[in-house]
Amino acid sequence: MLNTRSETLLSQERIQTESGCESMLYGVYDLMQDAAFYGRDLLTVPEVLADNSRLSPLATRYKGHADNRIGSHMDIWVESYEIIALLNEIVEYAVKLPETPKAKAILGETYALRGLTYFNLARVYGREPKHLVDGFDLCVPLILKAFFYNGGPMDAEVYPTRATVDEVWKQIEDDLNNGFELLEENEEDLMPTRMGSLATKAILSRVYLYESKWEECVEAADYVMEHAPFGVYDGNYTDIFADGEETLFYLTFTNSENLGSSSLQSVNGKASSELDEDGYDIGTGVGDADLCVAEELVALFDQDKDVRFKSLRKSKINGTKVWWSSKFNGWQGAFGWDNVPIVRMSEVLLNRAEAEAELGENTPALDDVNELRTKRGLDPVDLSGTALLDEILLQRRLELAQEGHRFFDLKRRGQDITKPAGHTLVPYTDFRVVARISDTQMDANKNLVNNPGY
């Protein structure tokens, strides 16, 4: 029989300590760095599934995603459940530790990360609570306890069924709220490179937005805005990504973990090179440049005033004019070294503004969107009702472009998935809006039911 016991991992005695649990948490962050997860695809795929990104003439990746072909979607099942398995094991040990501030913070961080992981699974493989289609309400399996196989029959613990949408979203809320309560008075120096209390509350504001729980969203965002040591950044826009300005939680990489050609910078364009006589980058820099910014998105910017427009760079590829995003331009100048923003203050402000507008609270919603507009170089507006909500959603699209929000922002609102020119709109009710569970997983677990259409 194959011996599966590692000869190099820490012993159980050493793991079941504060330092052992924290070491396992570092392992969670390592798993999150994978290019198929937060290292790249959780940010890039939602943009090309919708209408913010399109394929460049050099594309070798994402061709199926650009056309929303059957089976071309997010694929985060394996990575997510590997992370959840590790987090569940940390919970198993951390709840038994002496109740020191450090132990509480470790347990809180673990719960919060599990809530974030289930949130990503839920929005990829299921519908949102208020936007079911044909009554189908299965989401993903809820695995909340560490599993240690000691022989015997394989049962539902090994082959779980899918929980309902309501059950999963309740668990997401519970994990994030429990995590926040444990972190609030006990964390020390987690922000911004680990999941701290403010990041947890910010993610909660996002979760409530997805659930159309407007009052709860406002309350969570209020807490973040009141307690964060900084507000929405009003300096050089690309500093947010190059230097981590206004970011509550970003996934940090060391230089040795540089993803290189698989990085966000490489996928979104080539490194700067020589300009031609018309001011176009001639496209000889390093990088795969699979994606470029859709012209429909470029047209929405005020090119004279909006500082965000400066994060776009024009180039010519084999005579074809394209726009690249330089949001991810290499941490501290090193190509492919991208520290990945997971939640930042501008999103929290926009979460609150949208929820306020949905509640009919015109004045605070207008104040919030105008705060963002002025910090991005635009003049304030005076709007109300539907026009105000449309403006908030427009600013959300412009502010968070290429950060993995666009497809999910359409999906969570029950809207059709709009596409760039040359590609066909995907109706919200279309089965392709939700990812399929892979054949590998379906074959391994006969208790799973796939999403309709697959």
Protein architecture, described:
It is a single chain. The strands form three sheets. This protein has a two-stranded antiparallel ribbon. It has a two-stranded antiparallel ribbon with strand order 2-6. By secondary structure, the chain is mainly α. Strand 4 and strand 5 (320-325) form a beta hairpin. The longest helix has 25 residues, at 101-125. It is built from 17 helices and six strands.
Summarize the structure.
The chain is mainly alpha-helical and 454 residues long.
Main features:
single chain, 454 residues, mainly alpha, two-stranded antiparallel ribbon, disordered N terminus
Average pLDDT reading:
93
What would you report as the Rg, rounded to the nearest angstrom?
Answer: 22 Å
The strand line-up of the biggest sheet is 1-3
The helix content is 40-55%
What sequence of helices (H) and strands (E) makes up the elements?
Answer: HHHEHHHHHHHEHEHEEEHHHHH
Count of individual beta strands: 6
Low-confidence spans:
1-8
Shape: globular
Q: Quaternary status of these chains?
A: single chain
